[in-house]
């Protein structure tokens, strides 16, 4: 019997070769030093030379055999690629193990996305011990206080059809709650199949997708298909609440808790008791409120602002974001522990441009809906699209997704007097694109008043510095990967940019 440790090679491990006086042994060698692991499978996303140096260094110190796996990731936060490589290495390892052998995954080296994948694998297909290490804490088993179900992993795999078959197998034939979601593309079928599987269970669901892709519509369908369907469905737009009011809105407040708190008031959590709470724009939640939200989810209770005791709540959480939350975690803007708590089931709604075959279907069905909505209006004639109008609308890129399409058709129906929306009517309905103009006006970079004069150099400096810092942060200081992320030719070019802006690595 023996234990195999599987781990990514991290930046600190590589630094340990030359700078162990500063960084210690690094998490991988620290784990080997315990003598608990008989073999090491090492996933390496660094240059061959750096890795060879590290392997020689490790070989000099420890007897355990080390098998390197050279892997090229386009991005260290690419969840899908990380998942596929890690799963392959683990599957091969398990196959070569003897009966009774054990498996451990190391959470500490690498990016948060890599750690997340180890947790997912250990909690689902390949039960394994999860370890973590640090200089002050030594090597210890990480206790992960929640379960992640295999069915509800993020859409990590690139085998759509097999995945779709697996997801739809055993689903009830009809799911009327989801019928309002017009779709036929395989990408949407996959998303809906996941939602149908997740719906009956009280697990949290995180819905990711661009604005107007139907996240709220899907959240309502999940609630409708759940045992809580006859209870309340409470929607909160986390981005629309003033930061200093978030806690009292979510958790309620006592009379006199702050200026303006004239009466005791229950928050959204209590309003959703026994039902579903839909936290829209969850990525906008300020960090202090994230701490409180995590506590509420873990404890199943909330404390009103100004109260001394807690109130129990039984709430199913559905959350939505138009950001990629794991990247927000990697960038330090969203708490990792809260992410794991919310991301038990992750469903990504693709933008319209990735929904093959959906545009035409949506145009027809949404126009039918517009006709239905308007049929009682005096003098309204139901509309149809001319061939040219249909072609024009099918070719439109729909940056605002289904919402933009819906509004365009509503406008076309208002402005077209007769029964046929022709190409010109459709073009007119598309033309007023107030959202993009407003978007630019509100954009701190692009929306400055040129008439007042703008400091172009300062703006460009700010953008450069911002992205340099983020690239260094998500790659944990790996310059060649940071250069790739930024589209710069090589690490030397990046180094020059870093020097110019005084960005520390
Ligand atoms: N597949 C669909 N079939 C029918 N209607 C849809 C579909 N997707 C979205 N809609 C409609 O488009 C509009 C926008 O959808 P919804 O509000 O759910 O999007 P969202 O992703 O939550 O947007 P935001 O991120 O801006 O809040 C709604 O009126 C919704 O009913």
Automatic annotation (TrEMBL):
Pfam families: AAA_lid_14 (PF25601), HTH_8 (PF02954), RtcR (PF06956), Sigma54_activat (PF00158). Keywords: ATP-binding, Nucleotide-binding, Transcription, Transcription regulation. GO terms for biological process: regulation of DNA-templated transcription. Residues 181-414 form the Sigma-54 factor interaction domain. One of its GO terms (molecular function) is sequence-specific DNA binding. The keyword NADP does not apply. This is Regulatory Fis family protein. The lineage of its organism: Bacteria, Pseudomonadati, Pseudomonadota, Gammaproteobacteria, Chromatiales.
């Amino acid at each position: 019997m023996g234990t195999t440790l599987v781990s990514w090679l991290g930046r600190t491990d590589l630094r340990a070769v030359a700078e162990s006086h500063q960084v210690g042994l690094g998490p991988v060698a620290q784990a080997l030093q315990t003598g608990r692991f008989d073999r090491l499978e090492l996933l390496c996303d660094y240059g061959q030379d750096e890795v060879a140096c590290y392997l020689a260094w490790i070989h000099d110190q420890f007897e355990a055999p080390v098998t390197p796996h050279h892997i090229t990731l386009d991005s260290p936060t690419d969840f899908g690629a990380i998942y596929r490589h890690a799963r392959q290495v683990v599957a091969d390892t398990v196959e070569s193990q003897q009966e009774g052998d054990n498996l451990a995954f190391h959470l500490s080296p690498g990016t948060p996305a890599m750690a997340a994948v180890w947790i997912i694998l250990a909690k689902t297909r390949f039960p394994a011990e999860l370890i973590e290490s640090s200089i002050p804490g030594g090597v210890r088993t990480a206790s992960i206080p929640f379960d992640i179900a295999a069915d509800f992993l993020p859409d990590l795999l690139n085998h759509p059809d097999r995945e779709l078959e697996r997801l739809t197998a055993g689903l009830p034939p009809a799911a009327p709650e989801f019928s309002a979601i017009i779709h036929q593309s395989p990408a949407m079928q996959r998303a809906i199949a996941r939602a149908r599987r997740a719906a009956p269970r009280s697990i949290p669901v995180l819905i990711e997708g661009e604005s107007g892709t139907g996240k709220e519509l899907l959240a309502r369908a999940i609630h409708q298909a759940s045992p809580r369907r006859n209870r309340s469905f409470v929607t909160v737009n986390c981005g629309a609440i003033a930061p200093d009011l978030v806690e009292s809105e979510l958790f309620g407040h006592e009379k006199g808790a702050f200026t303006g708190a004239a009466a005791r008031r229950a928050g959204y959590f209590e309003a959703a008791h026994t039902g579903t709470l839909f936290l829209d724009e969850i990525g906008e939640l300020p960090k202090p409120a994230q701490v409180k939200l995590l506590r509420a989810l873990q404890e199943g209770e909330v404390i009103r602002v100004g109260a001394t005791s807690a109130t129990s709540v039984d709430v199913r959480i559905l959350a939505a974001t138009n950001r990629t939350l794991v990247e927000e975690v990697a960038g330090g803007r969203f708490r990792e522990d809260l992410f794991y708590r919310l991301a038990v089931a992750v469903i990504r709604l693709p933008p319209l441009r990735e929904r093959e075959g959906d545009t035409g279907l949506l145009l027809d069905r949404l126009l039918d809906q517009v006709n239905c909505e308007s049929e009682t209006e005096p003098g309204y004639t139901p509309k149809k699209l001319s061939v040219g109008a249909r072609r024009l609308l099918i070719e439109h890129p729909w940056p605002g997704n289904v919402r933009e399409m819906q509004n365009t058709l509503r406008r076309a129906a208002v402005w077209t007097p007769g029964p046929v929306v022709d190409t010109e009517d459709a073009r007119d309905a598309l033309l007023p694109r107030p959202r993009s103009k407003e978007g630019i006006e509100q954009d701190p970079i692009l929306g400055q008043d040129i008439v007042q004069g703008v400091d172009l150099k300062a703006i460009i400096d700010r953008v450069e510095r911002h992205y340099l810092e983020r690239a260094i942060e998500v790659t944990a200081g790996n310059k060649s990967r940071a250069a790739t992320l930024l589209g710069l030719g090589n690490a030397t070019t990046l180094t020059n940019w870093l020097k110019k802006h005084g960005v520390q690595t």
